[in-house]
Amino acid sequence: MAKSFKDKVREQFSRTAESYVRSPSFSQSADLAEAARMLQPTSDDILLDVACGGGHSALYFAPLVRSVVASDLAMQMLKKAQEFIAEEGGIENVTFREADAEDLPFPAGAFTLLVCRIAPHHFPDVPRALEEFHRVLRRGGRMVIIDTLLADEPHIAEFQHNYERLRDQTHIRAFTRAEWEQMITEAGFILHETKVQKKNHDFQEWAKRAGLTREGVQQLNKLFVEASDEIQDYFQVETFAGEVESFTDNKLLISASRPPKKTPQTSSK
Amino acid sequence: MTLSQNLLDILVCPQCKGALLYEQNNNRLLCKACRLAYPVRDDIPSLLIDEAEPLPEP
Question: CB neighbours of B54 closer than 8 A, spacing ≥ 6?
């Protein structure tokens, strides 16, 4: 199942690469500024950007660190990200590798920093990816994961899952804050901080970015318009003449690190 | 820095995590342990296990 699913992810993001690179939503950097505050990058750091998508995190961090390796499952996405970063000019410390987050092609302890932004909801096996993140980070290395936060209330979470799946078949699932905290600690990281940021989406841009047809956008619109008042309030759904104009969801930022090397205990004997 | 050094810089086989060799004439990275060849396209190495080409037995 994993291979055919990953082929689907690669196909989906190869087809929509251009709109992700040009996405005003992904270029907004409030979450990246927060990630930088959490990571405290220095010019000695080597950063891995896992599932880099359009390359926005790589571009943001490149001037702040020694070098960036940007990896993604979709070659087309990497090529677009490479073009995008080249167009910005003056950035020469980013390299690109086509790689699977669950089977990273990097040696143990290769990176001092790691970011993974708005991507884990596409991973079939998040604990396995976290195991890989832990392996490739140096001891004491710091990591920030940013992803869509799943609501704690089951009926809101169900609505959220339905619209995400309707928009994008490669969406597997988002996680609640408690689920993330558990996965992070179970993977052996020290959890430092979690923070929720609201994100407002222009409905049309958001729906079309995933490559939806006109009918698909209409179906998605219907789902939002017919949702209960409680759900519409939760997602701050703004409509005009029966058309959804925007809505707001929550992004979770997780700051964690690989434990530093233990100092040898002095023997009591 | 040569192309091959640049490519091999912090890169291992995604399957066995062992060292890779750069094969210049075919522009690909080889894992001798797994007998797999990973292609390089437009200077971007593709390190996907499922997409790698099996190498003939020695």
Answer: B35, B36, B37
Chain A interface disruption, residue of B21, B29, B48, most A CBs within 10 A: B48
| C-beta atoms surrounding A240 within 10 Å | 8
Query: Hey, where are the domains in chain B?
Result: 5-54
What's the full length of chain B, in residues? 58
Find where tokens 């799946």 sit: A165
Asked if A238 and A245 touch (Cβ cutoff 8 Å), the reply is yes
Tell which CATH architecture fits domain B5-54: Single Sheet (2.20)
Whether A117 shows a pLDDT value over 60: the answer reads yes
Contacts of B49 in chain A (CB under 8 A): 100, 103
pLDDT (tens digit per residue) in A14-29: 888 877 777 777 777 8
pLDDT in tens, A130-182: 999 999 999 999 999 999 999 999 999 999 999 999 999 999 999 999 999 99
How confident is the model over B3-57, as pLDDT tens digits?
667 778 799 999 999 999 999 999 999 999 999 999 999 889 999 999 999 998 8
Q: One-letter amino acid identity for A246?
A: S
Q: Considering the entire predicted model, what is its pTM?
A: 0.93
Cβ burial of A268 (10 Å; 0-12, 13-18, 19+) is exposed
CA angle A54, A172, A186 (to 5 degrees): 95
How far does B23 lie from chain A, in Å, by closest CA?
17
> Are the C-beta atoms of A172 and A242 separated by less than 8 Å?
no
The per-residue pLDDT for A13 is 82
Burial class (CB within 10 angstroms; exposed 0-12, middle 13-18, buried 19+) of A43: exposed
Angle subtended at Cα A49 by Cα A6 and Cα A106, rounded to the nearest 5 degrees: 75
